[in-house]
Amino acid sequence: MSIPREPLIELVGVSRSFGRGAGRVVAVRDLDLTVGEGEIITVVGPSGCGKSTLLNMLARLDEPDAGELRFRGRPAAEADVEIGYVTQSDSLFPWRTLLANVEYPLEIRGVPKAERRERAMALLARVGLAGFENHLPRQLSGGMRQRGNIVRALVYEPDIVLMDEPFGALDAQTRLLQQRQLQDICAEERTTVVFITHDLQEAILLGDRVVVMTARPGSIKLVREVGIDRPRDLDHIHEQPRFQHLVTELWDALRDEVLRAAPAVAS
Amino acid sequence: MTRATTTARRTVTLQQRPAARVRRRRLPVWAQSLALLVVLLAVWEAFSGRLVDPFYLPAPSAIADALAESAVAGTLWANLWTTVQETAIGFLIGALAALVAGIVFGRSPRVAAVLDPFLVALNATPRVALAPLFVVWFGIGFLSKVILVITMVFFIVFYNTFQGVRSVDATYLRVATVMGASQRQIFRTVILPAATPLIVLGLKLSIPFALIGAVIGEFIASSAGLGYQIKLASNTYDTAGTMAGIFVLMVVAVLIDLVLNRIARRVLFWQPESTERTTNTL
Ligand SMILES: Nc1ncnc2c1ncn2[C@@H]1O[C@H](COP(=O)(O)OP(=O)(O)OP(=O)(O)O)[C@@H](O)[C@H]1O
Ligand SMILES: [Mg+2]
């Protein structure tokens, strides 16, 4: 059913630990994962299992201690890929207006002013932020800021977009809206996305494949193909048997890990 | 229906009444401040010469006379100009050097670590105590005052710049890096703007100290400046003249602060309004 894809990201036996001696924490261990061009991978796992650590390595902000990370077959350091990165907390520059924030990645690439304005405005309008372009981040709501963040990570059309729980802090309704917008944009841009969330339903809703990670040291517990056709009707997807089956199966896997990560709560 | 309307109306009147009362009975804040000033001056004027010997506490009118006298004679303007020049030149040189040093140190933790003990020691040295030495080294003229001002300004601006550059939120640096910004671009577009609030604060805090540096330098040895004028008056037990000089200094400090606040608000337009008041010791 799914078209075979060229591998864009390859993780082979990737491990990363922090600190040394008694204080050493192995954040992730022996990760093996291949992400195809245009694929949307969602990652769930208990808090502290190394999801952000994984994303930071993909963003090339951090390097694995062991194992290999390749983009289009080339080692991460030499690979010519552009990456968009949406952080867990909102990170619009408070000294720039929304528009200037979204133009930022184009500005540092030397895109002429008129063109970058046009591209930024078009995307802002797509996520319902037209009319707010001259607002400063502090004058926007949390949900608007997060949309701004996402738009800023998309505007330079990166090969890969990394998102670290981008909707984590939003209320349920806003979340649903943003999920819908994200799905539309991804469908149109055919961007490769690695999306971290603590919300299993969101993971199934948005992903082509869902990765469940184990408790720390994080490794991959299981990977499931979602196999629900796109475009997905996010309002009614919950009623589909396939969706319900996945929720049950993945939750069983995830629950064990969540309990392992927090034994105090289990007893 | 009717009930709801009545309740609504009642709520409205309840909310409006106190505000209306305030508006009717109270003067604006500035008018109240002014009234308080007038009262204080009047009490002072009445006390001086009756309850207190005017030699110790001259009346406001006597101070005004002294002020007018030196203004007419022209000495006030010459001295004011000297002090303002010393302050301004010392401030500009000190602040510029401190900005450069703060940025260099902030960007290279190694240099900062090596030089840190020296800076702590120098900063702990009371600069006022250095003033007599500066007079010996640089003479009783303009130069020794400017150098004293520089030492006063430098550390305040330096530490604030350093802190500003060091404490940039790591998230901003990370997103800029991933978006493909070079080190230079990150410095210009992320580190500098993020450090601006602290830099501006440092500049603001340092200005009164610059003025203090100039005046102290003039106290110790000089032949011009407001500090010199104040010292001359107090040497001849002319308390009215002394207080006239102090008054001028106060006005200068307040004016500089006003101008600076205006500039700061423009530069830091993106920051939420803060009610913060800068305080300084010494
Ligand atoms: N820079 C670092 N220095 C030391 N330890 C770190 C560092 N970054 C992460 N860790 C540790 O690695 C582990 C995994 O952290 P990470 O932030 O990747 O978890 P996470 O899965 O993103 O958690 P959450 O869902 O709460 O965001 C944690 O135990 C954390 O303490
Ligand atoms: Mg995280």
TrEMBL record, chain A:
PROSITE patterns in the cross-refs: ABC_TRANSPORTER_2
Molecular function terms from GO: ATP binding; ATP hydrolysis activity
Signal peptide range in chain numbering: none
The ABC transporter domain, residue ranges: 9-240
The entry's keywords: ATP-binding, Nucleotide-binding, Transport
Stored InterPro entries: AAA+_ATPase, ABC_transporter-like_ATP-bd, ABC_transporter_ATP-bind, P-loop_NTPase
CDD domains named among the record's database cross-references: ABC_NrtD_SsuB_transporters
Pfam families, per database record: ABC_tran
Domain of life: Bacteria
SMART domains to which the protein is assigned, alphabetical: AAA
Record's protein name: NitT/TauT family transport system ATP-binding protein
Source organism of this protein record: Pseudonocardia thermophila
Lineage start: Bacteria, Bacillati, Actinomycetota, Actinomycetes, Pseudonocardiales
TrEMBL record, chain B:
Annotated compartments: Cell membrane
Family that this chain belongs to: Belongs to the binding-protein-dependent transport system permease family.
CDD domains named among the record's database cross-references: TM_PBP2
PROSITE patterns, sorted: ABC_TM1
Predominant subcellular localization, coarse grouping: membrane
Protein name per its UniProtKB record: NitT/TauT family transport system permease protein
InterPro entries: MetI-like (IPR000515), MetI-like_sf (IPR035906)
